[in-house]
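[Target chain]
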Amino acid sequence: MIGSAEQDAFVSEMRQAMVTTLRRDGSPSSSLVAYCRDGDDLLFSTTRDRLKAKTVAHDPRVVVAVLDGEGKGRFVSVEGSGVVEADEDGSGHIRLNRHMRANPDWTPPEGFATKLKADGRVIIRVRPARVSGMVTRA
């Protein structure tokens, strides 16, 4: 479970988050991502040459701020450690696509894994260590 029961349900329901990683000089870098769960881990996609992958490889500290997208001010902040994964078979990207499309039956097109590899796509897996946030606001 990620945080409290309410926080866990919120993280499972939402689809977008603001991810913050740390540059070599310690300054933060944030970007909006689509994410999904794999058990209690959070996954998002990037390419190996983008700043997110480079910063996580250098310093694994990551904050994933899950946003409600409805303007109600609800959020869950998940602090944890990230690792860059190759996702050779594309299973992480399939899971991500199914969640962000809200379609558990989504099937990848022909050559999906090959295209991911050609594009240099990787999965960042974040293992939660600390959870906070407000999800009960009306």
In short: The domain at 5-132 is CATH 2.30.110.10 (Pnp Oxidase; Chain A).
